[in-house]
C-alpha cells in the first residue's frame, strides 16, 4: 500500500483509503497492516503515486441516450412508423399542428394516414371543433390523422355542446362528421 499523510491508496484499484482502514472502500481488498511510523522527512517524496484513473466514477450517460432513442423509435412505430410516426410523436409532445390539409413538406404520406373531415352548416356560428379534447379549428376542418378512433365534439360560442360522437379514421380513406341544423 502506498501511503501519504493521513491517506493511503489501494494497490488493486488505486482508490484513496483512510490510513486506518482495514479494507478498500471501493474494491473490498484487505489492506496491509500499517507500517511502523518513521520520523517525518523534510523533503517530499521524489515520485508520489497518484491513484489510477477509474471508469467507475463516471455516470454512464450513453445508457440514458440509448434508452431515449429506443423510446422515441417505439413511440414512432406506435404512430405509423417511419418519418410520419416520428413527426406525429413530436407533434403530440410539443403541441405541433396535426392539421395537414395542405400539400408540402408538412404533409404526411396518405398510405399510413386517413382524413377526418368535420363540416358544420346552419346555425348562428362560429363553432369550436375539438378532437380528443384538443381544439382543432372552427366551423370546418380537415385533419390528416393516423388510423384509429377519435372523439369529436362541437360547441357553439355560448358553450353548448351540439355534437358528441366517436369517428373512425381508416388509412387512405376520408371520414366525414357532418353537423347541420339551427342552434
Task: Write up what this structure looks like.
The protein has helices at residues 61-78, 82-94, and strands spanning 2-4, 7-9, 16-18, 114-121, 127-131, 134-138, 140-145, 148-156, 161-169, 174-180. The N and C termini lie far apart (89 Å). Helix 1 (61-78) crosses helix 2. By secondary structure, it is α+β, with helices and mostly antiparallel strands. It contains two helices and ten strands. It has a four-stranded antiparallel β-sheet, with no helix packed on it. A three-stranded antiparallel β-sheet has the order 1-2-3, with no helix packed on it. It folds into three domains: 1-56, no CATH class; 59-96, no CATH class; 99-183, Sandwich (Immunoglobulin-like). The longest helix is centred in the middle third of the chain and has 18 residues, at 61-78.
**Terminus-to-terminus distance:** 89 Å
How many structural units, i.e. domains? 3
In the CATH hierarchy, what is the superfamily of the largest domain? Carboxypeptidase-like, regulatory domain
Determine the fraction of residues in helical runs and give it as a percent range: 10-25%
* CATH topology label of the largest domain: Immunoglobulin-like
Given helix and strand content, the structural type is alpha+beta
Low-confidence sequence ranges: 98-110
